[in-house]
Amino acid sequence: MTGKLVYTVDLRESCMLYFPSPEEKLTYPEAIEAVETTFAEHCMGRVQMPPKIYVTLEKGDFRTMPAYLPASGIAGVKVVNVHPQNRAAGLPSVIALTIILDVDTGVPKAILNATALTDIRTGAAGAVATMHLAQSDARTLGLVGSGRQAMAQMKAITAVREIDEVLVWSRDIARAEMFAADNTDQNCRAAPLEEVCGSEIICTTTPSQAPLVKNEWIRPGAHINAIGADAPGKQELDPELLRRSRIFVDDYEQATHSGEINHPISEGVYDPAELAGTLGEVVCGKKRRENMDDITIFDSTGLAIQDLAVGAIVMKKGGGMELPFL
Amino acid sequence: MTGKLVYTVDLRESCMLYFPSPEEKLTYPEAIEAVETTFAEHCMGRVQMPPKIYVTLEKGDFRTMPAYLPASGIAGVKVVNVHPQNRAAGLPSVIALTIILDVDTGVPKAILNATALTDIRTGAAGAVATMHLAQSDARTLGLVGSGRQAMAQMKAITAVREIDEVLVWSRDIARAEMFAADNTDQNCRAAPLEEVCGSEIICTTTPSQAPLVKNEWIRPGAHINAIGADAPGKQELDPELLRRSRIFVDDYEQATHSGEINHPISEGVYDPAELAGTLGEVVCGKKRRENMDDITIFDSTGLAIQDLAVGAIVMKKGGGMELPFL
Predict the structure, then answer these.
(1) Rounded CA gap, B171 and A55, in Å?
(2) Structure pTM?
(3) pLDDT for the residue A13
(4) Can you name the CATH fold of A134-303?
(5) Chain A positions in Cβ-Cβ contact with residue B89 (cut-off 8 Å)
(6) A321 touches chain B (CB under 8 A)
(7) CATH code for the structural domain at B134-302
(8) Nearest partner of A259 among A273, A249, A247, A245, judged by Cα
(9) B99 to chain A: which residues are within 8 Å by CB?
(10) Helices then strands, each counted (H, E), chain A
(11) Does the domain spanning B16-117+305-323 belong to CATH 3.30.1780.10?
């Protein structure tokens, strides 16, 4: 935890900017530092972030995520959809746009294509959790799922931890093998699910609606970033594993509604009173891994303040297409 | 009530469009017809519209308004601020942007500068209410407030009713006189508040936080569009006038939270059980003015579905700047 804000934005320029590829402007270390600082702000109650709102469409849904981050002088809204059938049409299943508003006047200052930024800010949160919660000597990374977010978790975590080997699993073994072939520089190889789950750090990034990861596969002391479950009904982890672990959420309200724990809570097999804390509390040093053998889980749903944190970096770096507005 | 949808959108084109001045693409009659049809959809429960979300900033706030209008094949989000001090800086106090999403894929299809569209769709709702609720021989229009929304109400109402004379009042008499001078073609003149309130149709469009319009000034049979109150704490009408009137809201949840009735309800001086119905019910013919002497009030807070209704017209008409996105 750095204790300082990395970027403070002055949005008082005159015209609206459009950034079609803002991800080209930021590195994982920058994103991780900004997201870490923002989780500290969240812990200290210095953000405004109403719960994300879901609208259901025939083939998917979209979520609207407004927030205000006073310490960074940035406010805005991300709009992001989930359309699982998009892949068949050659489109990403998750597509996002962020609007940045001038805090003093409400004037829209920028529109960001936030599709890749969403991957990065989610990866960055995984890295923050890993940095603070994984055992200090953890050197193996297991990826359950081999899509865009698996890639983001790998890139972010290898930016904060030295990793000797990355194991990857996918329901479609060809996809896992392709992922491994693309990442030989990370010493990545495809492996069976059980072997992947034996890693010291594990990231689950699938859209599963039923537990994939069995309790008995997870070694004592492991750290898990549970990323995939971000809507009611989704879950990736065995409820027994949840009861055996110290679970940290990004945000209580969002996680109990739509995170990994949402289904076990609604089924009565997990008591939210058992939650160990929030990632913000971990960043602020209020909560931590307590024993070497603890299994720690970061239950990520994705917060609007993470989007603003990376948006602030983009704004600070400047550029963008100028659009007429007022 | 036309019973048909005016515009059905096919958003399957390939790139994101930006409309800096979409208001140039639509007329009041088009907007009024689309908004009327959308209120009918609302009445029939055929829309998705979560309550608008407020985020508070130091000098104002912003509201995020997602919705889905299946009958028009359109989904999206409006982001709109209210910064009363903007006027001093030469900026509108209300500035808005609407994102239109492809329903089938979630891909953002267009971004609309919705500042003037917001005026128009609010004016259009006032016209729909006036068309259905005002006495058929009402020919005088009183405007309480002389800003952008007073202009929109006048333009919209004169598109649906023949008006002989428009009276306008402002706290700043010079502004009312300027408004009148700009609208001599509508036989408009500035007048004292009491005289304005003696009109047969009255539109209140001020940001007042205390009642301006006294009960005794309102004639039996009058119709009032109460537009200004759109956030908790705002009110323009005497609570006694509310109790004496048949009040129609745009949306129960939004109006009781932030409409003209929000403050009287929270003070216990108005019982929401007394509400006469919604504008959608009026459009569908389920609710109406019952007696010649009824005072009818339309309590408008502004709905996301109104924004989509006018957005659909813009999309249908085409044009816009092409922006790279995916």
Answers:
(1) 41
(2) 0.92
(3) 44
(4) Rossmann fold (3.40.50)
(5) 105
(6) yes
(7) 3.40.50.720
(8) A249
(9) 79, 97, 99
(10) 10, 15
(11) yes
